[in-house]
Amino acid sequence: MQYLILFLTTLASAIQLNINSQDDVKSAASTIAYDMMTVYTGNQSGQVPGLLPGGLNCNPNNPGTYCWWEAGAMFGSLINYWQYTGDTSYNEVTSQAMQWQKGADDNFNPANQSRSMGIDDQAFWAFTAMDAVESNFPAPAGDAPSWLSLAQAVYNFQQDKWDTTTCGGGFHWQVFSINAGYNLKNAVSNGGNFQLAARLAYVTGNSSYADWAEKVYSWMDQSKLMQHDPTTGVLYIWDNTDSNNNCTDQTNFVWTYNYGIMLGGAAYMYNYTNGSDVWLGRVNEILNSTYSLFFPQEYGGNIMSELQCETQGLCNQDQRSFKAYLARWMAVTALLVPSTAATIVPKLAASAQGAAGQCDGGSNGRQCGMEWFTATWDGSTDVGQQMAALSVIGSTLNRADIAPLSQAKGATSESDPNAGQNAPTDPTKEHGPVTTADKAGAAILTILVVVLVVGGSIWLVI
Ligand SMILES: *[C@@H]1O[C@H](CO)[C@@H](O)[C@H](O)[C@H]1NC(C)=O
Ligand SMILES: *[C@@H]1O[C@H](CO)[C@@H](O)[C@H](O)[C@H]1NC(C)=O
Ligand SMILES: *[C@@H]1O[C@H](CO)[C@@H](O)[C@H](O)[C@H]1NC(C)=O
Ligand SMILES: *[C@@H]1O[C@H](CO)[C@@H](O)[C@H](O)[C@H]1NC(C)=O
Ligand SMILES: *[C@@H]1O[C@H](CO)[C@@H](O)[C@H](O)[C@H]1NC(C)=O
Ligand SMILES: *[C@@H]1O[C@H](CO)[C@@H](O)[C@H](O)[C@H]1NC(C)=O
Ligand SMILES: *[C@@H]1O[C@H](CO)[C@@H](O)[C@H](O)[C@H]1NC(C)=O
User: Fold this and answer.
1) Is 343 in the pocket of ligand 6 (CB under 6 A)?
2) 383-436, pLDDT tens digit by residue?
3) CA–CA gap between residue 283 and residue 264 (Å, rounded)
4) Which ligand 6 atom minimizes the distance to the CA of 287?
5) Substitution candidate for ligand 3 out of 242, 246, 248, 250 with most atoms within 8 A of CB
């Protein structure tokens, strides 16, 4: 009898989940969040708050080093976790991380990271600040800048970076022109700024943000970044286009997070406009395309999959977290655009069940892999997989009463539309003139960027 019990206990280390039981879902989320946070050491003495391992010198192709943006995204997932479950265990580390990484200029461009800052990197920390605003996450103590003002400072900083000298507009991936990858105008940077503007419009009701969001969306829509296939009706949101040739071509990679970012931004705009037909059409088109591309029929049509790299086992450190963001913003969309809930909810539920089934690996027998369509662990573990599983499982606890707050509906974080106005926008102000060593570093980065964007992923032929 003793032996039998022991045997059962061992088996039970995999994550058990009955998706219809709130207690089960909360307990699964709690276990997954705990395991995710075992990697985080930023709150230990001598460590840097807000960084995951390798965060001062990351390379997404180097397992075990996590880039700065992903840490920012992770803290957002912990704010969502608190909202869904009421568990405050990670609130303090989250607050500390945001306040450390906001940097001296209070705009999520800290000196340690600013040399290689991307518009997308900054956007992900700003999303986390917006998660805090929209959930009335406890405000920072004393006279520290409000969560909302940090996001506004990012918005203000990025305003100057819109570049009409090539491609008729758009943001470059990199903030600084000396950096490798500056030539690319990519979906996640433009989409990231778009979603940030949409959320600021939704939260503050200020139409300047909405006008800007419309402008960024329209530019993307008319550029090679977004292409509509007239035969299938699928909207392709490609990874990037190259300003060196005036954005006349694109790289044929599609990622869940780009669809999530655009979907979320469009959903906030739909709600902000009190239900405009234009934004409803955009939401539905992105959503339909998301279903066609990332919920393959071969897995039943309801299980999210990272099309380009998942089954090949080729997703890099960044890419392993992408499904977290699509899951999160699908859940938000179901609330902000109520007509979408009927198709979103079953897809999140099936994906959550599938994700739990993947959480049966690693050293403790319950770490999560990526392949949600099978209960056989795929052999991978990472902060990204934990975050994706956490977000999709948590999303099944999404309820009307935790819909994103706006100031009109009780969000209390203080607005400062001029936040960060005086922050330097020129890298030489932070670091001194560009040196030969910087240039050599940039050349190495260029090579890295090519590997990074292309990686082992599958080029989509349409
Ligand atoms: C760091 O945060 C974790 C929660 O993720 C907590 O368990 C741990 O005690 C904290 N460590 C320190 C030194 O504060
Ligand atoms: C920047 O890096 C230094 C050296 O590692 C560290 O002490 C400091 O806390 C870091 N600052 C931020 C904002 O990450
Ligand atoms: C570059 O592209 C923009 C937008 O498509 C276009 O308006 C502009 O004329 C192009 N410039 C050149 C030099 O081809
Ligand atoms: C609205 O936002 C714009 C753009 O940031 C800002 O210039 C303006 O002051 C804001 N208006 C109010 C009333 O906050
Ligand atoms: C949406 O409706 C509210 C309440 O009627 C109104 O105050 C607000 O101006 C409307 N928003 C837009 C963008 O039309
Ligand atoms: C999205 O798909 C639904 C169901 O197939 C269809 O009714 C609707 O017209 C589609 N909308 C768009 C904008 O593609
Ligand atoms: C906006 O979102 C709220 C909260 O989920 C929802 O109650 C409301 O119906 C949405 N507005 C529109 C126009 O759909």
Assistant:
1) no
2) 999 999 999 999 999 899 999 999 999 999 999 999 998 787 765 555 555 554
3) 8
4) 1
5) 246
The Cα–Cα gap between 37 and 115 comes to 27
pLDDT, residue 171, reads: 98
Give the three-class secondary structure for 260: helix
Dist. CA 138–CA 160, nearest whole Å: 31
Ligand 5 contact, 273 CB (< 6 A):
yes
Distance (angstroms) between ligand 6 centre and the Cα of 284 equals 6
Whether 226 is covered by a domain: the verdict is yes
- The whole domain housing 397 covers 22-461
pLDDT at residue 432, rounded to an integer: 53
- Greatest CA separation for the chain: 76
Retrieve residue 456's tokens. Answer: 């082992």
Q: How far is the CA of 435 from the centre of ligand 7 (A)?
A: 52
97 is a domain residue: yes
The count of other CB atoms within 10 Å of the CB of residue 210 is 20
C-alpha span between 331 and 395 (Å, rounded): 6
Q: How confident is the model at residue 441, as a pLDDT? A: 46
To test the pocket of ligand 2, the residue of 45, 102, 112 to mutate (highest count of ligand atoms within 8 Å of its CB) is 112
- 31-66 confidence digits (pLDDT tens): 999 999 999 999 999 999 999 999 998 999 888 899
CATH number of domain containing 175: 1.50.10.20
* Ligand 2, atom 11: closest residue by C-alpha: 112
The verdict on the CB of residue 284 being under 6 Å from ligand 6 is yes
Would the pTM count as exceeding 0.90?
A: yes
Taking the C-alpha atoms of residue 88 and residue 405, their distance in angstroms, rounded to an integer, is 19
What separation in Å is there between the alpha carbon of 125 and the centre of ligand 5? 29
Residue 194 domain-assigned (yes or no):
yes
The pLDDT of residue 443: 45
Q: Is 298 within the bounds of a domain? A: yes
Give, using CA atoms, the residue closest to atom 2 of ligand 3.
167
Q: For the chain, how many structural domains are there in total? A: 1
H/E element holding 266? helix 256-272
- pLDDT beneath 50, residues of the chain: 1-12, 436-437, 439-448, 450-451
| Residue from 284, 293, 295, 340 whose mutation best tests the ligand 6 pocket (most atoms within 8 A of CB) | 284
